[in-house]
Amino acid sequence: MHVKFSLSRWQLLAWLIGLLLVTPLGFLLFESLQGDSDVFQHLFDTVLWDYTRNTLLLILGVGLLSCVIALPLAWLTAYCDFPGRKQFEWALMLPLAMPTYLIAYVYTDLLDYAGPVQIALREWFGWQSPGDYWFFDIRTLTGAIVMIALVLYPYLFLIFKTALREQSFKLVQASQLMGLSPIQSFLRVSLPLGRGAIVAGITLISMEAMADFATVNYFAVSTLTTAVYDTWLGYYSLTAAAKISGIMLLILFLTIMVERFSRRNQAVYERQSSVNSATLYRLKGGAAWAASLACSVVLVLAFILPVGVLVKYAIVYADEAWNGAFFNYAWQSFKVAIVVSLVTILLSLLVLFYQRIAKHAYPLIPGRLASTGYALPGTVLAIAVLLPLTQLDDALNNWLEPFGLSPGLLLSGTLFAMIFAYVVRFYAIAHGALESSFLRISPSLDMASQSMGKGPLQTLRKVHLPLLKRGILTAGLLVFIECMKELPAALLLRPFNFETLATHVFQYVSDEQLELASISALLIVLVGLIPLYFVNRSMEQNHS
Description:
By secondary structure, this protein is mainly α. It is built from 25 helices and 2 strands. It has helices at residues 8-32, 38-46, 48-79, 85-91, 100-111, 116-125, 141-166, 169-177, 182-193, 195-211, 214-218, 224-235, 238-262, 285-316, 318-321, 324-357, 364-370, 378-400, 415-439, 443-451, 456-467, 469-485, 488-493, 501-510, 518-543, and strands spanning 80-81, 281-282. Strands 1-2 form a two-stranded parallel sheet. The longest helix has 34 residues, at 324-357.
């Protein structure tokens, strides 16, 4: 028995939402295929290859370094018992809350020639000038790779650890019976079985590394992300920026295809884990303390040290950092995040409700179309949003000109552009969170509502919404947090004289004055810790 609601209005609404949110991507692809642009040709003849090469090296370097950090730590915390293991299981995910540009600034401040590390070395060894010794320069591509990997490695750590937990520990025990040492078992059993999870984690990290703007810009490393930003703000050429964005989309597409290709024909049906406290490797003596030390070093470098420096700045510079500007920017950030959260939840509810009442596969398409924006890097998304909005502004001005009216950049030059871009980017988060909640509602409730003569809107309002409260709260919270952290799109789309906490902090970072925005930076980090709490709680419940 199927619920027979009138679908026409819901169908029209869902498709309108899907097409509206995919429109920027369509304009971007169309613009990138247009004829030659003088600016793009100039970039192509001079620096575009350097941008592309640096982007590929950044992706490759961050992926490799993340593997070196994340895979051993995931295996240790999943299969071994050593002092502090339970605490490290969740603590090693904390760096995800740290924006990459904050950790980049902290280490630049510590390791520069005028920083405390080099000052201490000069005092200890009696060196007088830079010519007396060699010290590495952190403001390089290698430095950017290390900074970004320290923040992004938890993606791979989390995914690979989950995969290890879902493997049968009997395979590891069998390898022991065959005479393999724990390290040999890790290399010859766990890594091959977890290949799919590793590739998925590296793909996610590669996409995030390619989208990073703040760190590479701060280190003056030219990548395609900075090229899009500089082309738009330096040359005001949307066409050239769209073409560079098209190259980024091509790399993104190839990355996803490599991930799908590497996982083809790989199916693992063993889902029942036998890992428990009784089957863990019992590390003893030096091995146990070496495992604790390895986890501690990564945690200190990636989270504790940067946060400690920010806390010190916040205390020392409290009078300058705790001011009216902080409250103003915090309020503006909250305001934008709340609006975007409400809009994405409303749109997701409408699309998902249509998906629920239409019992066949084809209603999934509007939701898939609307979710494509999440894969776009912030700078690319900003250009994609500007393309249709500037054309709408031109059309509106031309239409109103005979009436003596000139509204100017009513859409592309106001807060509307920024909010629209956020909705396009973060719709997928709300959709995913609410979809799982919708699936837990029994279809029999829809049938009961229909048998009582209730229409679709009444069913949604009186039956579904009360049962979706927790899912709506989760979705709103996740979107809110992502809005608070978003930087590249805000830098390109924010109206004149409008700042968020992220842009405010980044400007001070660029001016080498992060200490004056340290409280704002700490607030961003604290907000970023909230989803990590929920992820850790969910994992503990699943494991128990």
